[in-house]
Write the structure tokens for this entry.
Amino acid sequence: MSLPIYASTGQRVWYYGFRVLCGLIFFFLIAPIVTIIPLSFNAENFFTFTPGMLRLDPDAYGLEHYRDFFTNPSWQQALRNSVLIAPVATIIAVSLGTLAAIGLSQSHVPFRGVIMAILISPMIVPLIISAAGMYFFYSRIGLQGTYLGVVLSHAALGIPFVIITVTATLVGFDKSLTRAAANLGANPVTTFFRVQMPLILPGVISGGLFAFITSFDEVVIVLFVGSAGQKTLPWQMFIGLREQISPTILAVATILVVISIILLTTVELLRRRSERLRGMTPG
Amino acid sequence: MTDNTAQTDNGPVLAADGRPLKASLRKALRAQKIRAMMLIAPLLLFIVVTFIAPIADMLFRSVENQIVGNTLPETTATLESWDFANGEPPDEAVFEALYYDMFLAAEARRHTRVGSRLNYEETGMSSLFRGTGRSLDDLGDDYFDVFEGVDPIWEEAGFWYDFMGAGDGDAEAGGLIDAQRDRLSALLDEPVAGDVGFVPDAEIAAILPRTADAYAAFAAYTALVDEDVVAEEEPWEAVFTALATDLRRDGAGEAIAAYSGDGAAELQAAYEARDQLPDISYTEFFIEEDEDWGSLDTWGTIHAYSPSFTPGYFLTAIDMRLTPEGISAQPENLQIYGTLFGRTLFMSMVIMGSCILLGYPIAFLLANLPMRTSNLLLILVLLPFWTSLLVRTSAWKVLLQQQGVINDLLVWIGLVADDNRLQLINNQTGTIIAMTHILLPFMILPLYSVMQTIPPSYMRAAKSLGATDWTAFWRVYFPNSVPGIGAGCILVFILSIGYYITPELVGGETGTFISNRIAYHISDSLNWGLAAALGSILLAVVLVLYWAYDKLVGIDNVKLG
């Protein structure tokens, strides 16, 4: 979309105007996230830039809020819970989801559409409805307010992401490879682990990362299904934002932004690797 | 394959192992299907238990109304024949049933629950049930004093146990206890099991039916809930009220005279002293406790909400109500859900609209830049997408405050006076700004993936045929990008009408959605039925949109990242 040399003045104005407009929209997308990063180093308990910060006075910056995050017991408990819940939910989602995705990618699956709709539904149903239903049902069967209840509900939320990413990877999977493996004497389990798994691994990992971030960021379900003992980081942030907003939230937010940048980079790298691998497979 | 079968006239084609090829193929296919299902089954089961069952439970709760019937079983059964249109409160039999139902419920501390349930429909019911529940003992105490005056033995737990219970060789009325056990299970909402250690005497049950019932209720409650020994506990007040009622019943005299079992003499003495018993009917007792028991509306509400299933919650959710006269509109000051649904839809539309306005140029730019540049710029879209929702919401909360960065900036530029800072948060503006930001990637990504497939040669062709830039875009490019707009719109709309966190944090009073009301009913007002009904309506809307999305894009084609 480069500007031809014969473009008229109007076209030039439009061309640069459009770029400026897009720049502004990108600014709108990124600025809020970027702004909180310097704010989190504010030495004082303000949510805006102090005159000292604008003068780039080193004394106006400080690590108080980070110190608070790492020493405050309620933040530490929240961090511990998040770290205990998300990986377990991810493991459940990935193991069950990958198996099912392989099953779904076979050529003759009865009621494929219905099954797919059911498996994807946790992603479609609004969280508040899932939370309400789970709260009602889990209190009936004694799972409400338990660690297991939160893990199971988070695993259910993560499953659609695993299904979608792994199914997408399997679309490009060359079935003759498994036949070749079988032909060479490998049993189905060996074929799966030595041939199929390495090829679909990027999809599995990125599905797992989606499931992880879903659980790690999730707050509505945990608010209802969990009790104070299962308080996670997002829960603590939610309470903090609703009641007494403390600048420690900005420090936590900054840490979470860094985590999401790491995850995003990983997913992007995996996606490229997967595309490269698929490009190499014949057929 | 079919050609082969058609050609062979002498029998079907055989596979290598000598079996018909068709059967062999079918068998292989079946094995394949079973293998696929075995792989899917664990996950399917998991989702059904952890996700589908909760949704089904919510749908069930939106119509379920067993609490009235479970707490007041006899009352609702007796009330069935009563007609609100008659303009008369129900007769003595209903009040009698109410007394015993309420007594047991009050012992189990369950009467307040049914009071709160009915209070959703008619204000004042909660205090009516709570207040009356406290004074139920008074009626029985008055009778108890008389019986004790006649013979102190009526105070003794052991005497009552032998008197009511079946001795050796007596006919047993075991059904009474079983009925009470079922009733307790229903009342307490959990299965009650165990041995009561008491079997009613069938003869006494025939002479003193009400007393036998009340004592059986007492025995079952004492043994199964309090876990005490029935023979060692003094019966509760309702048993004395029941005895008084039975003694005054027509024809009680002859039956008592003919009775010769345990406690026959004491019963005869009590019967002869029946004129000393205070003469209060159940109706008088209840109306004296609270005159609302004489009001038609009270009984109309109980009557309307007696069935186990009710459309009442759904009617409330659409600003209607189920009154004794039938279905009518809610009084105007209580009509909040229509407004709330309307606001949710309206704001979702606005958010969707702003997402198109902001997302379309970005997607267009990304799709028309060289791959390398667009991949770089795509990161700017994906980073917010991957950033925690609460991080983005807290960012907006910090930026939009009156003392926040945006207001500071506007004051510094001079657009806004320092004493007249803009109210950007805790209202609709705040919700719209923050949610547009949060949902924008969901518009850009589907748009981008559709626009990538539009060949640039189309635009060039249009221009070479003489179209201006605008005509080429509007008549050629735009129609090709419509599927992307559709997909993005539905996605943003689905996500936005069910949003809870952001409206809760930045929405204030006027920027909240229906989901905030659902959460309020679950955790604050505890009106779970209404929360379930509101949730079911929202779910129905989302499923219709989901179906449209599936038709338009196909759920398999959802792209992530």
Observations:
- The first helix of chain B runs from residue 2 to 7.
- The mean pLDDT of chain B is 87.
- Chain B touches chain A through 90 residues (CB under 8 Å).
